[in-house]
Design a protein that fits this description.
The chain has 6 helices and 2 strands; from the N terminus they run αααββααα. It is mostly helical. The protein folds into 2 domains: 76 residues, Arc Repressor Mutant, subunit A; 44 residues, no CATH class. Strands 1-2 form a two-stranded antiparallel sheet. Helix 1 runs antiparallel to helix 2 and helix 5 crosses helix 6. The longest helix has 19 residues. The two termini are 38 Å apart.
Length: 141
Amino acid sequence: MVEETWDTRELPILRAVYGAREEGADLNAAGKAAVPELDDRRYMHTIEDLFNAGYLDVAKPGGNRLMNVWIRDMQPMGLRAAGAWPSGTAAEEFLKALAVRAESEQDPEKYLPRKSYHRDASRSLSRRRSQQSHIHWGPLY
């Protein structure tokens, strides 16, 4: 069985590395301190996995030897995962637009899912997106 480690291993490392980055502290020491229960080998595998997935920028000063992996910086995906940058995905923005509209509705009966409701929310999102990027990509239904 595969163990889910994102919340207990990778995410704490990313958040700690982000904190150290903001303070100008040692990224490697911060990452390791975030998961003290990991032995050095498992920690280095995790750092390399985060590098291969596009979350971290690392250096391998000793060539491709695993134990010589050093965190240099965070990649945009790592900054998003750590909560420092917005995700910016259209689906998440669409869901936020739906939530804002639902919260502003005075009559709860009006919040029943209807095609027009989703159409209006997607048009609102589409207008905001086209204003930001100068590209109109229409409703999302």
